[in-house]
Amino acid sequence: MRPRWSAEQRLAWLLCAPAVTAMLVVTAYPMLYALWLSLFRYDLRFPGERHFAGLANYAAVLTSEVWWRALLNTLMITVGSVALELVLGMVFALVMHRALVGRRAVRTGLLVPYGIITVVAAMSWRFAFDPTTGFVNGLLGLHAAWLAERWSAFFVIIQTEVWKTTPFMALLLLAGLTLVPEELLRAARVDGAGAWQRFFRITLPQMRPVILVALLFRTLDAFRIFDTVYVQTRGAQDTATVSLVGYDTLITRLNLGLGSAVSVLIFVCVVLIAVLYIKGFGLDLTARGRGR
Amino acid sequence: MVCTLAACARPPAQPPHLHWYVFDEQSGAFAAAARRCSEESGGRYEIVLAPLPTDADQQREQLVRRLAAGDPDIAIIGMDVIWTAELAAAGWILPWEGEAARQARAGRLASSVQSASYDGRLWGVPFTTNTQLLWYRTDRVAKPPATWDQMLTTAEGLGTHGTIEAQGERYEGLTVFFVSLLASAGGQVLSADGRSVSLAPGPTRRALEIMQRLATSSVADPGLATAREDQGRLAFEQGGPSFMLNYTYVWPSAHADAPAVAAHMGWARWPAVIPGRPSRVTLGGINLGIGAYTRHPKLAFDAASCLASAPSQRLAAERGGLPPTLTTLYDEPPIRRVFPFAEVLRETLRDAVQRPQTPLYADLSLAISHTLHPMRAIDPIRDVARLRAAVGRALRSEGLL
Questions:
Q1: Which chain B residues contact residue A45 at CB under 8 A?
Q2: What is the total count of domains within chain A?
Q3: Span B113-136, mean pLDDT?
Q4: Quick check: pTM over 0.90?
Q5: Do A112 and A15 share a domain, yes or no?
Q6: B89 touches chain A (CB under 8 A)
Q7: What confidence score (pLDDT) does residue A106 get?
């Protein structure tokens, strides 16, 4: 039976309406339009040859070696950067949480990289690793052309990502740390639990929902990586990501049909990641379970 | 329009602005040419430079995005020779017709006029041109090699100083390198009508053999797989390498940066692939096209004609080091001082080869450079088939690249 709408509920929807409308216009419309375009053979250079192509664009993408390689590259960057960010972010969160002196200075200092625009960060690191202008080779006593080989290029890209977004992870985890009841930790200490035991047995399990949310946000973000790779290698040395493939198809080749199919497939991947977190790891984004 | 006598008598406050979208030329030669033509117009128009990035791929990306959206601000376009077919087929530039077309062709290099033509019509006025020469060290090599085989053998005999600088990164420059080798071997990428793949097995294999031999030879630069024109120039100026395939800008650059090397710098025609058959080198340069959506098409045609006329070409040559498209300028002493190699340059330009003239050129070039990179991994027999397949897919705009 459908519950009757109370006046309060109606008011709530009314208040939401502007936001919902804005979301429909700026999010739903472009997404549906991309879906529509992806069903056409449509190249901006040949507007006259536009015709319905069904799923041919999807077939072309999914049978292409380029797509699968880019997907693999993207997954490597995603897993590599998110894993490192989780560990480092947790360390930073603990430092920020437990800092006794200069708490504000520590928090501000740790957040600085997050305030820097990604393109600028990517440029800075590209120059830092450059054999002629960079300091990294001098520091390590090497003569390596980091961005000219596949694995070292991946290393530079991942470390740029980690440097840039670990503060975001730390911030989310810091919020989680404040949720861990202090009395629980004190009780455990009285019972003789050591620092490691308290961290692994109490803090981490208590923070599980927050950690999952942080991981979800960062995974979705990392999967759509574009600017760092564009600036540092432009996909050379086999480092192209799915977003870069989409860019090449849409912006360089002006192939709206094929490019839209790539975009839709990236969207499908993002949805799959979200479903994996929510169904697979039991992440509850609304946290209603505990509220009641 | 109704106006009072006083308002009508007043000259217009400002002549219409014509924006000239062209790469950011560092010497100021383009700005000087724009100023000169604006003044010469007697207040009919004023040319305003709209500088684009120096990287040709990024210039194109910015331009096509604006043109596809019908930007009326684009009056004159400094078109790389490889964009003619794409911009013309999409209807983004206006054809040159009648007297304007006649003047745009008159006295200019046939290969440059060809690069501005598509589908039997002229789509731009040739402004500057460019092509590669072979640069070598006169103190180490007595006579410049005539063929690729001779060059590789001579270089290998020079030991550590034998390095040959070429372009091996995965970008347009690799496509240019391949097209020059292929044409010198007597082949072509597309059939004459530009609609099907040519890439005859014999010449294609010969071109791939040379690329593979160069990349796996002891005289290849260790950084060949990431080398563009400028890395080659810098390496040559350090004094190590003895050979370099590069554009003419390396000459003034060496004189400014490395006089000791420049004193022993010689030039010759690009080496031949087949003995006795002169090489055919890829043509570069800029043609001036008129944006299809401009508010002032007639003024834009006039302005472009002025920008591509002899005085502007002299400015571009003497200040910017950009070779002219008007053939007689090569005989003028001031130009000869800038280009002491003018004779070899003009001969090379006369026999120059066009990159495939098709609206799908951008796709085609990606297909070629992606298939042939890195050069050291080329297998001449296997890769002829791979290349044909990749170019064919690009021509049918199938799949990802």
A1: 64, 86, 89-90, 359-360
A2: 2
A3: 97
A4: no
A5: no
A6: yes
A7: 84
| B65 contacts on A by Cβ (under 8 Å) | 251
Q: Evaluate whether residue A162 is within a structural domain.
A: yes
- Tell me the mean pLDDT in the region B96-121: 96
A100 and A60 within one domain: yes
Q: Is the pLDDT of residue A30 over 70?
A: yes
Residue B135 parent element (H or E): strand B132-137
Cβ-nearest to B64 among A60, A254, A262: A254
Among candidates B225, B226, B401 on the partner chain, residue whose Cβ is nearest the Cβ of A66: B401
Nearest to B381 by CA among B210, B185, B205, B207: B205
* pLDDT higher than threshold 80 for residue B281: yes
Distance CA B159, CA B174 (A): 26
Interface of A with B in 187-246 (CB under 8 A): 236, 245
Of B61, B68, B399, the CB nearest to A252: B61
Domain that residue A6 falls in: 1-26
Name all domains of chain B by residue range, CATH numbers in brackets. 16-130+283-350 (3.40.190.10), 132-282+360-395 (3.40.190.10)
Contact B90 A46 (CB under 8 A): yes
Same domain, A132 and A83: yes
Structure tokens at B151: 């060059």
Q: Are residues A12 and A93 in the same domain?
A: no
Whether A145 sits inside 8 A of B61 (CB atoms) is no
In a domain, A248, yes or no: yes
Q: Distance between CA B297 and CA B312 in Å, rounded?
A: 21
User: Is residue A207 a part of any domain in this protein?
Assistant: yes
Spell out which residues of chain B touch residue A240, defining contact as CB-CB under 8 Å: none
Q: What is the CATH number of the domain that holds A210?
A: 1.10.3720.10
Is the minimum CB–CB distance between A6 and chain B shorter than 8 Å?
no
What pLDDT was estimated at residue A2? 55
In a domain, A285, yes or no: no
When pLDDT is averaged across residues B39-56 and rounded to a whole number, the result is: 93
Buried (b) or exposed (e) across A182-191, using 16+ Cβ within 10 A? eeebeebeee
Asked whether residue A100 falls in the same domain as residue A234, the answer is yes
3-state helix, strand, coil in chain B (%, to 5): 50, 15, 35
What's the whole-number average pLDDT of chain B?
Answer: 93
Helical residues (DSSP H) of A191-255, grouped into ranges: 195-198, 204-223, 227-232, 242-247
> Measured between CB atoms, does B65 come within 8 Å of chain A?
yes
Q: Do A17 and A53 share a structural domain?
A: no
Q: Are A49 and A21 found together in one domain?
A: no
Question: Distance, in angstroms, between A36 CA and closest chain B CA?
Answer: 18
SS3 per residue for B345-371: HHHHHHCCECCCCCCCHHHHHHHHHHH
